[in-house]
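Sample log: AhpC/TSA family protein.
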Amino acid sequence: MSHKLMPDRPAPQMSLPLVGGGRFDLATETPDAFTMIVVYRGHHCPVCKAYLTQLSGLLEQYEAAGFSVVAVSMNDAELARRSQQDWALGQLRIAYDLTPEMARDWGLWISKAFKDTEQEIFAEPGLFWIRPDGRLYLVDIANMPWARPDLEFLLSKAAYALAQDYPARGTFAT
């Protein structure tokens, strides 16, 4: 069962292999502003292809704004490599082998395939900004492939959030 993440609290752990070698380990990221984790459904998803292609085109701007960026899926190494190559994602880091347990820790929805072209199980989209100290800042989780935040709009708000010391929202618990 998934659970609700709380902004301004420590993000769950995440350490995954990267296409091309190395690992993405959230605990060792050192961005000036935020680490942005974009969870995509997998190589089977044409909406993911369009979204990650757009993200790849904005990567330099995100990095200039102080972000470290990674795209993550439950794909295996081969499917992740094919996504990187077939979708021409350039320098965008692609992590793979997200487990169902890790997906649940991040509050993600998990789906079972209903078409032959889909992976047997996969995480639905999510986008997270994590502060350098490991606290969640932005949490956006969807249960459908086409419900995703606008990447250009988010980028346009990053400088404001940092300059105004805008707090993480949604932290009031009753």
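Observation: The chain has a mean pLDDT of 95.
Observation: Residues 15-163 form a domain with the Glutaredoxin fold (CATH 3.40.30.10).
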